[in-house]
Design goal:
This is NADH:ubiquinone oxidoreductase subunit NDUFA12. By secondary structure, the protein is an alpha+beta fold. It has helices at 3-8, 16-25, 63-69, 77-80; strands at residues 26-31, 37-41, 48-51. A hairpin with a 6-residue loop joins strand 2 (37-41) and strand 3 (48-51).
């Protein structure tokens, strides 16, 4: 991404204003596996925010960090939460608008035909 595009876009990482605010008032507290960086205000630690690596999409923030951002837990996730268990799956971002999104039978792009009606439907008719 070019420098000019970085100045004028808000959907890919931080804007110039957010970057400046973060440098002046923010304290970096952690980074997740996706590269998102988490901050809290130096004077008011209750104020928290994230600088995304890539597109700004809240579903790309892992659940543990969501808890921290919303103030549900005070400590950082690795301190406040129990270790990940074997049966737990990795969270997935919102896939709407991508080729991996769920498409029911009969939807455009699903490649499947909707099943025929079974004839057991009776529309409601108001009296």
């Amino acid at each position: 991404m070019g420098a000019l595009a970085k100045i004028f876009t808000w959907w890919n990482g931080a804007t110039v204003g957010t970057g400046l605010w973060t440098r002046l008032h923010g304290e970096e507290v952690g980074k997740d596996d996706a590269g998102n960086v988490y901050f809290r205000d130096k004077k008011n630690p209750v104020r928290r925010w994230v600088i995304y690596e890539g597109s700004n999409d809240g579903s790309r923030v892992p659940p543990a960090w969501q808890l921290w951002l919303k103030g549900t837990i005070d400590d950082l996730p690795e301190k406040a939460l129990p270790p990940v268990r074997k049966f737990q799956q990795e969270p997935t971002p919102n896939l709407t608008g991508t080729m991996a999104a769920f498409r029911p039978d009969g939807a455009l792009g699903s490649g499947k035909v909707r099943p025929a009606s079974t004839g057991d439907y009776e529309p409601w008719i108001p009296e």
